[in-house]
TrEMBL record:
Organism placement in taxonomy: Bacteria, Pseudomonadati, Pseudomonadota, Alphaproteobacteria, Rhodobacterales
Protein name listed in UniProt: Cytidine deaminase
Organism: Sulfitobacter undariae
GO cellular component: cytosol
Residue stretches making up the CMP/dCMP-type deaminase domain: 1-126
Coiled coil: none
Length: 130
């Protein structure tokens, strides 16, 4: 098992998902090589819940890094979990170049897509120029 998959599997155990029962773990490798982890954190006020990918990105930013080279997301679903729309935009903000996102099941199935494929036509800083 790769270190990234192991990190995602491990942090998924800490997911707080009493409402959906759907635990997700995410791990990203910062450009420095350090691996950052995140899990979903739900709330009784449902829209306040946060995704595993967002948690991993927040951990990276808190540690002082701003880009990652690889991402891995794992869930207990029968098919590999695909990031929600909001997370695709978050991943696009910090993914370095054409970063691969591996989506996986606990059982071991994997699907790999680039961030560009996950979010074609992403809103990016070039639009801010007016
Ligand atoms: O890529 C995904 C998809 C879903 N979830 C979470 C959000 C919610 O807590 C639960 C069910 O949607 O799974 C993630 O963390 N990442
Ligand atoms: Zn999400």
């Amino acid at each position: 098992m790769t270190d990234l998959r192991q990190a995602a599997i491990d942090v998924r155990e800490n997911a707080y998902a009493p409402y959906s029962g759907f635990k997700v773990g995410a791990a990203i490798r910062g450009e420095s090589g350090v691996v950052y982890r995140g899990c979903n954190v739900e709330n009784v006020a449902y829209p306040e819940g946060t995704c595993a990918e967002a948690g991993a990105i927040a951990a990276m930013i808190a540690a002082g890094e701003t880009s990652f080279t690889e991402a891995y997301v794992v869930a207990g679903s029968p098919l590999p979990v695909t990031p929600c729309g909001g997370c695709r935009q978050k991943l696009a903000e910090f993914g370095k170049g054409d970063v691969a996102v591996t989506m996986a099941t606990v059982a071991g199935a994997e699907q790999v897509m680039s961030i560009a494929d996950l979010l074609p036509g992403a809103f990016d800083p070039s639009f801010l120029g007016g």
